[in-house]
Amino acid sequence: MKKIILATALCFSAGTFAESKDTYSTTSETAPFGKEQIVTLNASNKFTLSGKAIKVGDYMPSANLMTSDLKPFDTSDKTNSVKIYSVLTSVDTPVCVQQGIDLSNYISKHQSKLKGIEFYAISADTPFAQQRYIKNNSLSSVTYLSDSSKHEFGMNTGSQIEELGLLTRSIIVVDKNNKIVYVQRVPELTTIPDLENAVDRAQKIL
What we know:
Thioredoxin-like_sf, alpha+beta, TPX, disulfide bond, Glutaredoxin, Tpx_Peroxidase_subfamily, Thioredoxin peroxidase
């Protein structure tokens, strides 16, 4: 019953947001990931996180995901780039729409200073829902990753919202060796992580 109530609250809030032309604020506030941590929606609705918490200094755990183009992706694979993961709660909510548009626009405007940084967006939506989201909002320059199948990312990073099977809004930066150098997990789902802070940290380790 609690799951139904909380899911309804999320959907109701999304509908309320959709009717509004307000934008959602960026915050520098952060809170830990992991089991029994709390994230709120509109302050009054409380959700519980589950999974093994990540923190700065850890190596990015393996999570087998699917890109929006239906290709496999393992978060533990190393590349020659620094990676920024923007974690979205649900592409069907307007907060996530703004988060995705802000990310795409930021990359387009600052391409020259972002060389060597790869951008990813992760949600528990299906790849097909992500495809629709990307098309409807004309998004580019970001690889979208789906955690809808086994929720490995949510459980292996402590970003899983237990009651909803969704991911808590956050941003994670890893170096070329897949070591986590920056994390921000927003305490309130109607706020957006500070992308500029994440990029500043990423640039320092290029």
